[in-house]
Automatic annotation (TrEMBL):
Primary location class: membrane
Organism: Rossellomorea marisflavi
InterPro entries assigned to the protein according to its UniProt record, in alphabetical order: CDP-alcohol_PTase-I, CDP-diaglyc--ser_O-PTrfase, CDP-OH_P_trans, CDP-OH_PTrfase_TM_dom, CDP_ALCOHOL_P_TRANSF_CS
Keywords (A to Z) from UniProt: Lipid biosynthesis, Lipid metabolism, Membrane, Phospholipid biosynthesis, Phospholipid metabolism, Transferase, Transmembrane, Transmembrane helix
Full protein name: CDP-diacylglycerol--serine O-phosphatidyltransferase
PANTHER family listed in its UniProt record: CDP-DIACYLGLYCEROL--GLYCEROL-3-PHOSPHATE 3-PHOSPHATIDYLTRANSFERASE-RELATED, CDP-DIACYLGLYCEROL--SERINE O-PHOSPHATIDYLTRANSFERASE
Catalyzed chemical reaction(s): a CDP-1,2-diacyl-sn-glycerol + L-serine = a 1,2-diacyl-sn-glycero-3-phospho-L-serine + CMP + H(+)
Subcellular location: Endomembrane system
Entry GO CC: endomembrane system; membrane
EC number: 2.7.8.8
Gene3D superfamilies for this protein: 1.20.120.1760
Taxonomy, superkingdom: Bacteria
């Protein structure tokens, strides 16, 4: 029974570790690897909550751990990635602006955690930090084709959209784990093209996460 309760937490910890590795890759100049690790974190994050419900292993520990992992992988890691790829030109100012992302994301998570349970199954209030962090990671993959001003505008928009009162469709009734996973599937189909010829630098964790994620989605569709 204890092992069953630990399974969802292992996926959450995997998500957290992806965030840590992403920061390390970004600091060493391997920006595409850092972005892919955030996307892997999205895969793992999209599975832990559903696994907890499937295994009847929901716990307060798991919920708190999930928020802590999200603030690292989808708050801190994307802010470092954006700083090293787009904001470093502005020196200290760029570093300060990049730091706003985890601040807004942390506030959004805290507001979500303290909101009435099951307030709505049809929408999120504000953009989820998972989606916001994933969008910034995706933009980094195509950084050479996107002007810095565009990334800056989107980065700023994501910060404010996370704490806004705009209702975002949750798509929870669709047989996919979370809102941000639609973006994950789209990008997953493009990873081969992006990384063609660079497999020696590919984060090996994706060879574990991707088959698990595909098997999980297949199971959900078959079950429906």
């Amino acid at each position: 029974m204890r092992l069953k309760k630990m399974i969802p937490n292992m996926f959450t910890l995997g998500n957290l570790y992806c965030g840590f590795l992403s920061i390390g890759f970004a600091a060493s100049g391997q920006f595409k690897n850092a972005a892919v690790l955030i996307i892997i974190g999205m895969m793992l994050d999209s599975m832990d909550g559903r696994l907890a419900r499937m295994l009847n292993a929901d716990s307060e520990l798991g919920k708190e751990l999930d928020s802590l992992a999200d603030i690292v992988t989808f708050g801190v890691a994307p802010s470092f990635l954006v700083y090293y790829t787009s904001f470093y030109h502005y020196g200290l100012l760029g570093f300060i602006v990049a730091g706003l992302f985890p601040l807004f994301g942390g506030y959004r998570l805290a507001r979500f955690n303290t909101s009435p349970k099951k307030a709505s199954l049809h929408y999120f209030v504000g953009v989820p930090i998972t989606a916001a962090g994933g969008i910034m990671a995706i933009l980094t993959l195509f950084g050479s084709m996107i002007p810095n001003i565009v990334i800056t505008v989107i980065f700023t928009a994501m910060c404010f959209l996370m704490v806004s009162r705009i209702r975002i469709p949750s798509l929870k009734e669709v047989p996919l784990p979370k809102y941000g996973t639609i973006v994950t599937i789209f990008i997953g189909a493009m990873l081969y093209v992006i990384y063609k010829g660079t497999y020696e630098q590919f984060p090996y964790l994706i060879y574990i996460a991707t088959p698990l994620y595909i098997a999980y989605l297949a199971y959900k569709f078959v079950k429906r």
